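Memo to structure team: turn this sequence into structure tokens by end of day. - J.P.
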Amino acid sequence: MSASKNPVIAGYVLPGLPQPLLTPDANPGYKDLRRAFDQVRAEIANSNADLIVIYSTMWPSVIGHQIQARPAPEWIHVDEEFHDLGSIPYKLKMDAEFAKLYAQIARERGLHARTVDYHGFPIDTGSVVALKLINPDNRIPATIVSSNIYSDRAETFVLGKAAAEAAERSGRKVVAVIVSTLSNRLHQSFIDPQGDKIHSLKDEEWNQKILEFLKQGRLEDVAQLSRQIHREARVKKVGNFKPFWWLSSFMGANNRYQGDVLSYNSVYGTGSAVISLHPAPHAARDLEFDEDSPDRYQGERNVLAPSGESVSEFSSQLSLTGPMSSSAQSWSGAVPEGSGND
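Reply from structure team:
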């Protein structure tokens, strides 16, 4: 899809832990993140966007990809890690028709995908926090897509292209959001929020590299570095670090962006940043690697491994035999050490 046709008018990286929403005054960094969320809210309100599409690393799925299609999901949410911070009542506004179209196109492109539409389905903390802060009055409908724990680059890239095609077909003007921290290691003992800091020096160094690239608008370069980021700055809970693959595929796999780091701070040890990306006429730099740009999912190609070596022994596209409950298809238990999924 050419840049002129791409319906995504802006992209954002947002952290999903609840402190900026529930306890912004507990730490100057939390308050600064809250300020940045408020800035994003104002930018979106002043844009001509009519849809927010969220890829949340805090909504893990096991078989294929799930897309929230409940028109007005309503619940009282309590974060599984930070339940002591209190409850988050929410009533959101979803674009059910877009969700159905997105799932249909994802299937046409070779992916397993389905919509979710029932009362009480547990929407993840990150999506709730993001929408409460950037779209508090539900002025713009949203769509949320899960992050499959076994999927790799080709599959995630096709999922992003399916989102772009759905937006183009439906005529939507879209704000694309990934809910994810940079480094995701949580402190393993209770801390005084005033003393919150990044978990390790190594995590901080990798966070600064990611921020440097994104500030220069180098979205595709960060996407191409995702495997290395996963090895160096992420808890190994899933197959790979995927959100920038999806965002790059959805917005356009290039470095033609104006990037702005609105805030970067530690939230319980994680690298939490609010970053905006807007399409720009000129590329920051050329691509650094040579991974391909698939339009249909036909398996993974790992350019960093010997020919024929598989990327993972698991597959997000394998169906289980026999009946499976919806709870097995969408896992939402607490995860040790790391925040989020990818």
